[in-house]
Write a structure and sequence with these properties.
The protein is an alpha/beta fold. It contains 7 helices and 7 strands; from the N terminus they run H-H-E-H-E-H-E-E-H-E-H-H-E-E. A 7-stranded mixed sheet has the order 3-2-1-4-5-7-6. Bound molecules: S-adenosylmethionine (SAM).
Length: 192
Amino acid sequence: MTRFDHDYYQRFYGQQGVHAPEQIAHLATAVHELSAWWGVEIRSLLDVGAGVGMWRDWYRIHHPAVHTLSVDISEHACATWGHQLRDITTWRPVRTYDLVVCHSVLQYVDDDALESAAANLAAATAFVLYMELPTASDLLHVVDSERTDMEVFARSGATYRALFGRWFQQVGAGLWVKNGTVPMFELEVLAP
Ligand SMILES: C[S@@+](CC[C@H](N)C(=O)[O-])C[C@H]1O[C@@H](n2cnc3c(N)ncnc32)[C@H](O)[C@@H]1O
């Protein structure tokens, strides 16, 4: 796939990029600590569509004992930032990971492959999934179109909620907890 090449990462992860390691540090700290609050000790991380590898790098620096695996469909990203070359629409890991991160990836997956990507993410997740992506509404009303790739699949939030709701409870702020793993209080999760 040539779309995710040197120019793509320069455009969206350069000076005016969508997010930077300092911002990911806040987010990763919050996700790690909230998981601990729920009684989930993160001992393994799978970063799907890792790009420049900010999540993987944060874990390696701040929690070096955590086993990390980062994967991406881009040959350029894999060669430059050290990921395994994988397409989440067709690849399912042989083991599960305590935390799976899929940050700004699924908007690139077409409608036909979305269900298999979601099923593979669910199969990969032992406890917690962090997932972020722009929905159709976000693309219209929220994102900065100068700094965001707008050439993506625009789907409703309801589409993602219905799909991921098969395997997860949506907690909010991008967090989803695998069904049957962490008992959540009623008001900790979003109503299905
Ligand atoms: C917007 S970047 C996000 C990078 C990183 N997750 C972040 O948030 O900084 C999207 C990434 O998803 C990867 N990607 C797109 N489709 C993919 C797929 N089917 N399987 C794995 N990676 C994919 C691209 O190669 C690219 O690196």
